[in-house]
Amino acid sequence: MNAWVERLRREAARWAGEGIDLLFPPRCAICRCDLDGKGEVPAVSTARAPGTVCPSCTRDLTADGGRCLRCGELGAAGNAEAGAASGTEGCPGDACRRCRGRWVAWDGITVLAGYGDPLRQSILRGKRPGGDDVSRALATLLVDKHRGTFTGWRIDGVVPVPMHWLRRAARGTSAADEIARRVARLLGVPLVAALSRQTATRMQNELPVQERPGNVEKAFRLRRAVAGRRLLLVDDVVTTGATFTACRRTLAAGNATAVFVAAIAKADRGGEEAVSDGGSR
Q1: Rounded Cα distance, 133 and 154, in Å
Q2: What total number of domains does the chain contain?
Q3: Same domain, 45 and 89
């Protein structure tokens, strides 16, 4: 009897889903075109799942390649991904010429692509209320592109770069939270709200590059135990890396074993400042 009821429930759910697709055809989270109308199978996710991306947008948003897994700049050695997948943290042997032998703040970095259109427009949409599907879609693309690297890093928790509560209340959403939540789910590891932002600092993009580290130096506080954990710190955009560096320092003070970072986009500004600053905004 229970098996029959369960089968009936599944069939009802299937028919309901098909009815929803008939009335509201599934759309790409990025270009908003009906997937059925394009005659394409989604490249990520499933047809009815929020955050689905069509193959065309997937190609446009993931074409960027050859980034160093140590500093995040273009120009990495060709086998950097293979080195990360084998468990070589930070891929020191595959570091690009810009950062080889130089100190960086984290144990490794992954980036979906450079901060240019059309990725820039998608990130800006994800920062607005109602843009959570876009953030989740971009997170899915990030994991699809770097799953081998994440596996090699042996991550056991994903930490979003926190937004101050006043700014979150004004904006209505946090792209970093949505991205981190999806990344954690896809990797099968916990989302760890390990950090809080105790100071409502000025926006990093409003400041000269040299003032950004000081702006966020004491902005973050540890709110969860992280000792012995291998963590992935997530944000939407990285420029000089000042925010990532400050967050990583706080996690390291809590005795995290390793802190890797991941961003949807990197605003490339030149090798020297990206490396010396630790390479997020």
Answers
A1: 27
A2: 2
A3: no
